[in-house]
């Protein structure tokens, strides 16, 4: 028996990186999965991989910077599977910018992906759960950078601090609806997107991953084992579940 047997899980930003690892873990735990993203090729490739492993999955093409498409990812999932039990907001933008060189366009891009997208996806998912009077979960990927962060992450920090506050607010607002809304801080992670960022903004060479062993171990571990997101998505009645102390 898996932690997520027959649960419907939507992973926004699920076609690569952390989101893809979450989707794989959810399928291993028995979930029916929808993954969303802007680019069809990696999303459809992941869905094919999950299907080949015996999972049930679908890809939803969506530009999550558009609030309507963020809500639409939930609507498409509900249309296909009849409901949503767990929403995972893992899409993220990490383009660099300091307080002095961040443009309004870069700031708006960070707010759109890192804050507005999860806000409106949560709105749609929680509305479905409340409508059905059914328990559910939301997992927002947050960061310790929300409490300060490196100088070159100013717009990222601003957006993620907003998401951290939103997560607490929504969790408080919907606790009596039996909807758990969790913030998951997994730490810095070596992903395809981070590889591109390291090369573009920091001049990293081919060996940069070997200089970050902890991040590389996390990325591999998330693809192989029972992930924290699986525990966060599961019902409070699932075997082995216990509340945090």
TrEMBL record:
Family annotation (Gene3D superfamilies): NAD(P)-binding Rossmann-like Domain
Entries under SUPFAM superfamilies matching the protein: NAD(P)-binding Rossmann-fold domains
UniProt keyword annotations, A-Z: Oxidoreductase
Residues annotated as signal peptide: none
Gene Ontology terms for molecular function: oxidoreductase activity
Region span, Disordered: 225-245
Compositional bias segments (type: Polar residues): 225-235
Pfam families associated with the record: adh_short (PF00106)
Similarity-based family: Belongs to the short-chain dehydrogenases/reductases (SDR) family.
UniProt protein name: SDR family oxidoreductase
Organism this protein belongs to: Streptomyces haneummycinicus
């Amino acid at each position: 028996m898996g932690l997520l047997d027959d649960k419907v899980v939507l992973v926004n930003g699920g076609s690569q990186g952390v989101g893809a690892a979450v989707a794989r873990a959810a399928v291993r735990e028995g979930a029916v999965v929808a993954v969303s993203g802007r680019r069809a090729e990696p999303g459809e490739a992941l869905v094919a991989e999950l299907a080949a492993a015996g999972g049930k999955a679908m890809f939803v093409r969506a530009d999550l910077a558009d609030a309507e498409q963020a809500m639409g990812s939930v609507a498409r999932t509900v249309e296909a599977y009849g409901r949503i039990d767990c929403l995972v907001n893992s899409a993220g933008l990490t383009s660099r910018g300091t307080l002095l060189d961040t443009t309004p366009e870069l700031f708006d891009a960070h707010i759109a992906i890192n804050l507005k997208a999860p806000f409106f996806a949560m709105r749609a998912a929680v509305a479905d759960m409340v409508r059905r009077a059914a328990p559910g979960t939301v997992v927002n990927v947050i960061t310790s950078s929300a409490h300060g962060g490196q100088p070159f992450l100013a717009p990222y920090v601003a957006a993620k601090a907003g998401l951290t506050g939103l997560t607490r607010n929504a969790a408080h607002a919907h606790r009596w609806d039996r909807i758990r809304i969790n913030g998951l801080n997994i730490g810095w992670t070596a992903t395809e997107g981070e590889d591109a960022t390291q090369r573009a903004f920091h001049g990293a060479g081919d060996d940069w991953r070997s200089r970050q062993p902890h991040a590389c171990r996390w990325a591999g571990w998330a693809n192989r084992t029972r992930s924290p997101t699986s525990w966060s998505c599961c019902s409070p009645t699932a075997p082995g579940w216990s509340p945090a102390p």
